[in-house]
Amino acid sequence: MRIHFRYLLVWMVVSCLMFATTTEAQVVWESPQKEIYPYLERMAQKGLIQFNDLIRPLSRQYIASCLDSLGRRMDQLTPVEKKEWQFYAREYGNEMDTSLFRSGKDFVSGFRKDPYQRWRPFTARNKESLIQAEPIFTAEQNNGSRGSFLQSSSGVNVWAYGGKRWGFQFSYHDITEAGTGLDSTRQFTPNTGFVLKQTNNPRRINYSRIRGSVSYAFKNGSVAVGIDQQLWGYSQSGRIVLSDKAPANPYLRLDYRPFIWLSFHYSNLWLNSNLVDSVRTYGTGNTVYGGERIRYIPKFMATHSISIQFNKHLTFTAGESIVYSDRLDVGYLIPVNFFKIYDNIVNGGNILAGSNGQLFFQLSSRNQLPKTHLYSTIFIDEIRTSTMFNRNKSRNQLGFTFGASVTDLVIPYLTLSAEYTRVNPFVYNNLIPAQNYNNHGYSMGDWMGNNFDRFFVGLRYTPFPRLKCQLNYQFIRKGGAGTVEQQYFQQPQPDFLFNPQFNRREVSLRCSYELINNLQLWGFFNDRKQEALPSGTFTNIREAGIGFSFGL
Predict the structure, then answer these.
(1) Which of 239, 197, 165 is CA-nearest to residue 445?
(2) How far is Cα of residue 206 from the mean position of the Cα atoms in its chain?
(3) Are strands 282-283 and 292-293 parallel, antiparallel or unpaired?
(4) Per-10-residue mean pLDDT for the chain, 552 residues long?
(5) 403: CB partners within 8 A, 6+ apart
């Protein structure tokens, strides 16, 4: 392990020295589930701000700067949008206003409003540092045709700034579900996967969520080490490049924007292969719990992408990722390395010695058509360009998404979205199991895996400030996973949707209201009809629930 920490230390020091000049604001990452994201996304769709949210999470400081820019165009906002701006400005007041606390005196307060009228459970601040902390509490009662259960959780969320460059954060909450109809596999559902804690009660499951990071800000960018999920790309129903399906993982992250029209992102992720390394597993000298020390095969992913903004409407992004195993490779810690070429060189072009590489591309157009966002994503796992149109020899193992949304449709704050996603057979899979495109067994890409397509249409409406209503419909066709032998040797390749598994139609309605900052109430209803194939038998699952969360 010492060599791993040495690589990490060298990487961070070199990155800091490369870019450490005049300092920008510190970096604390904001959870991608916050309602501020769709609010700013919609403002960008109307052409009121520039919002670079291809890769999430974004920093609180960047979100605050977008709110600040939007505040200068207040005369172009509707009454509902103005009230929501004021609400979000309270949350990010510390980042938007740096004029307070110029003195060196310590200030500590609890369970009171801050100068921006945001109620804070705990604040400590002086000229150099700021610490914010609040508890996490959630509860949700879920009832449906499969049973009913109560989900509850508790934890803590802490974030801090140190000096002018450093940011820190830590978030942990422990989640328990108790009742009947529990989903312990999270298979073919967009809900984030988890690592279960052992329990002997079939009507009770327990797991934890954790986020945390230490970051260093420099001019036009930042470097961070932490544990979190990273999302890449635009989508309404499922991201095919990087999604929030898999649990959080440790990472190194570098973001750099040398020009207003050019940005670069790099990450190296530590993943879990769920595969026992029999060579490194050893006996403990006793018989307790089988008497073995279990070691897993090390697994990693490196990814980088570069975005070019042609004008204030149109942005093109190209990226690459590689899943590698067995040991941390310093070559993949070089942010500007060409991973696939490097892999071919160091492994002599031997497929059994190499790694699992991917290419991906994103095109996004905002407000080129008034109040409209058009986007497309393509994810290439493997393709033979010379035979891509030859049915007998092609290996078009790729996925793509096309989507569009238009806001202020007929009435203000009504947004209509439509999206089509297709992922061909064998995408995300590899002949070396430790290099599959997953973490803890959950896909790092789309939650449906591969060999499927999905049509999605949704309506999102805010009738008055902070009340969010969303009505969605989606139709999914799912085929089988196939075998490794079929993936690498069958010619022609199995047809799209071969070995059909099911067709699914789902309607969902969700409404939420943020009573005060970070205190959210919600209710939802889902109706899912699924046809098993090839038998043609139908299953109808309905569920409804209400809940609240504070601190997330």
Answers:
(1) 239
(2) 22
(3) antiparallel
(4) 45 44 70 96 96 96 96 95 96 80 75 92 90 96 94 96 92 95 92 89 93 95 96 95 97 96 98 94 91 95 98 96 96 96 92 94 97 98 75 84 96 97 97 96 97 98 96 98 93 94 98 96 97 95 96 91
(5) 234, 235, 236, 373, 374, 375, 376, 417, 418, 419, 420
Nearest to 228 by CA among 170, 155, 166, 161: 170
Q: Are 186 and 241 in contact (CB under 8 A)?
A: no
Q: How far apart are the first and last CA of the chain?
A: 33
Residues 6 or more apart in contact with residue 138 via CB below 8 angstroms: 151, 152, 153, 154, 173, 175, 547, 548, 549, 550, 552
CA dihedral in degrees (77, 79, 85, 87; nearest 10)?
Answer: 180
Return the structure tokens found at 145. 């045709």
Q: Is 174 helix (H, G, I), strand (E, B) or coil?
A: strand
Whole-angstrom Cα distance, residue 359 to residue 349?
Answer: 18
Please tell me the distance from the alpha carbon of residue 332 to that of residue 341, in angstroms, as a whole number. Answer: 11
For residues 498 and 452, what is the distance between their CA atoms, to the nearest angstrom?
10
Judge whether 233 and 377 are in contact, CB under 8 Å: yes
What are the two backbone dihedrals, phi and then psi, of residue 260, each rounded to the nearest 5 degrees? -65, -20
Single-letter code of the amino acid located at 184: S
Partners of 474 in beta bridges: 456, 506
Nearest C-alpha neighbor of 363 from the set 400, 305, 316, 304: 316
- Say how far apart CA 60 and CA 49 lie, in whole Å: 16
- Match 């070429």 to its residue by tokens: 341
Output the pLDDT for position 104. 65
The predicted structure's pLDDT at residue 335: 96
